[in-house]
Specification:
This protein is of the alpha/beta class and 146 residues long. It has one domain: 3-Layer(aba) Sandwich (Rossmann fold), CATH 3.40.50. Strands 2-1-3-4-5 form a 5-stranded parallel beta sheet, with helices on both faces. The longest helix has 18 residues. It is globular, with a radius of gyration of 14 Å.
């Protein structure tokens, strides 16, 4: 059985809404979980805080992670994900508006699976998200499948 759970971590309400709507529109019956800051993302992944009681053995097929987040940065979340055996193998796609080479280097050095710049154009954004979802859910063979 394919794991069609996606965790979207995004603090910008407009970007979050566009991302979720696009993923739902093009999705292969994907279940989408959302977190609006880095701490909430870790709570979700590890079944703590407001997500206490969630079965943390069921992890996302992939995580779309914004770099610039309140409470904990995307890089901090990435480091935590990679350092925990429960989440270490989840593909993490850094979805960011940053065009800084140093940000890209830092993401890959800390274990990002992919670094994707958010297009400004609506059509480009939705097309890129569609391709990301298709790749990570339908093409990629994930070790996190449940």
């Amino acid at each position: 059985m394919r794991n069609n759970l996606i965790l979207v971590v995004e603090d910008n309400p407009d970007h979050l809404e566009l991302t979720v709507l696009t993923l739902e529109e093009v999705g292969a019956n994907a279940e989408i979980a959302v977190a609006c800051d880095g701490a909430a993302a870790l709570d979700y992944l590890f079944g703590q805080g407001v997500h206490a009681g969630r079965d943390a053995r069921r992890q996302p097929a992939f995580i779309l992670l914004d770099m610039k987040l309140p409470k904990l940065s995307g890089l901090d979340v990435l480091r935590s994900v990679r350092s925990n055996p429960l989440t270490a193998l989840i593909p993490v796609i850094m979805l960011t508006s940053s065009s800084e080479h140093s940000d890209m280097v830092a993401c890959y050095q800390n274990g990002a699976s992919s670094f994707v710049r958010k297009p400004v154009d609506f059509v480009d954004f939705t097309e890129k998200l569609s391709r990301l979802q298709a790749y990570w859910l339908d093409v990629n063979e994930s070790l996190t499948a449940v």
